[in-house]
Amino acid sequence: MPYCTIEDIEKQLSTAVLIQLSNDYPEQNTVDNVVCEEAIIYSSSLIDGYLRGRYTLPLNTHFPL
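The chain above was modelled as a monomer; its predicted structure follows.
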């Protein structure tokens, strides 16, 4: 279960910064959703790895940003 969405990230970063971080083709000027989703999945797996020994996963609590 992912801990955030692309929309959550866009609330913290400007769209221009997210485009710059996710898209290798500046002429396209769009957020690469595949790159963002892969980063979210990777990060969520890393978080789960640290939490697995202490908590029952998935966590049932939703935290505000």
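The helical segments are 6-12, 15-22, 33-51.
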